[in-house]
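Course assignment 3, question 2. Fill in each field.
Student: A.L.
Task: Predict the tertiary structure for the chain below.
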Amino acid sequence: MMRAPASDLPVVLEDVSLQAGATAILDRISLTIHPGAPTLLVGPNGSGKTSLLRMCMGLAAPTSGRISWGGRTDPTPTRRGLVFQRPVMLRRTAAANVTYALAQAGAPHSHRTERATALLDRVGLADLAHRPARRLSGGEQQRLALARALARDPELLLLDEPTANLDPAATRAVEDIVLAAAQSGIKIVMASHDLGQVRRLAGEVVFLARGTFCERAPTSDFLDHPSTQEAQAFLRGDLVI
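Answer field:
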């Protein structure tokens, strides 16, 4: 009998804390990430969004508490990918960056070139396949980073403010890829500081402040009727310290 492939969902964080010396980066967070519409992590700088994404990826281990992926506690990613705010480009062409990601994901050698071409097409970079990745613009590099993450055939895609340094046209190109991925069934968990982006992309919002979990709500509820004082202050544009 064939076994069903292992799933990384749901991701369950139970009373998770992360310390760096005497500093609490995340403090007793309990959160379950289910399949469905995109979840956007929102909060002031230093609230713990990046650390939470790294822990969901399995790149950082909690100081205390427990994380499980599809019921398993082994942090090795099976079908999840992470795109950083400033992705590192390999010193090779755009196509070779994707081919490398496919090799890391265990794709059969005979399928890699064809699959890389399809992934570059998916992110609108087919015409730049042979350009050195480090000579691409910031927006093009971010789309290439998305193609590399999609090479893992993820069911969970973690994004750390992927449009923070991009102009509006490049931001829209990245958002279009993210929305298309979500519509294909990939669960998106994305950190963002851009409330317009939150309204455009999110199905729900998770609001963090000072490393603590403050609020979780459908997007329109959060933006129009936040329930905590911290979220109300953040949405007014006040400093939340």
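Instructor remarks: Residues 138 and 200 are 22 Å apart (CA to CA). The mean pLDDT is 94.
Grade: pending
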